[in-house]
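Structure ticket #2291
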Amino acid sequence: MRATVRPLRGADLLRGTDRLRTLVYPEYPEAHEPRRHAAVWDWLARHPLAAEMHRWVAVAENGEVVGHLAAVPQHYRILGTRVVAHTPADFQILPGYGFYALSLMRRFFGVAENCVCVDQVAEAIAIEERMGAEKAGRLHYAAKGLDFSRPTRVPAPLRPAMKVPTLGLRAVDRALGAAFGRGPAVEPLFGFGGGSGKLFDGLSEEVSAEVPCAVEKDAAFLKWRYGPGSPPNPVTVLGAVEGGDLLGYAVLWVNEEGGDGYLLDLTTRPRRRDAARSLLREAVRFFARAGAYIVRYRFAESPTSPRPEDLRRLGFFFREGRRHTMLVRFADPDLHVTALDVANWSYSAGDGEATFWAGRPVGSRNGSARMG
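Resolution: structure written out below.
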């Protein structure tokens, strides 16, 4: 079966891409909601680097869209150097047209001088490696059960704990939280702009100066990433504050069903483990109050993140099979060598493309004052 790869332009190809999504992911309700995905692409089009975003489709001889891939740009700091790297996004191909997955990825690497990929799908990882990206390592996947009244959704590692009532577990959580002792005060933050914008800018600069590899997350980026119009909005933002200084922040989101709590980002000043512990403890308490049954957190261990042993002390467990792989390719050899070790990265799930699609559908309630 033959197809041609071309830039995605025009209403017909957009409609064809919406139909492709329903064929590739028939079991997912959100795949049948084109307005939801249109809203994500409208949001991506407001990114400061939107002019450097690209989308391609594979089109069969009968005009059917049988494949899709996008290249989403982002600013990174590698060894203090500001660079733009692209991430492959929304990669889809119909069975029978697998050859054109390579053709789509060739288009991607033809425009992406630098790339950062975070993926879990073995087939996609194999293609990315074939095109020149190299594995830097794997992100941690940690989860914590909060409410076992819904046993069908409890992961296998937690089933032995089903004998413990949920209220008892929350009492245990309070004890575990106290085990960290007192740390910096944590309080809700109302957005990333206004007077707090300089605090986020300063934190981003400090992280970039001391951590070899990081997403550039100044106030403008964070407002775009989590503010009005973004897929997860509204989110809750917690800040660790000491003497008027921002030591770190956490971005929390509960999905529309109210069951899954996501720790999208937790970033502190380098080596402020006390701030990471305080934020982690208060994040767990927030999700418990919100009625989430589980907390999910993907991250690279770094001087700006919690340590795995701190997560375990709060009752998190780690799942090897749910970890994502980071792959990189940078044109500058020195930058590439540095980026090729995940231990050099400050990186959370919210920094990457995988979480762009996990938002509320268009038309759902999002009028919260928690973001501004």
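Closing remark: Residues 3-132 form a domain with the Aminopeptidase fold (CATH 3.40.630.30).
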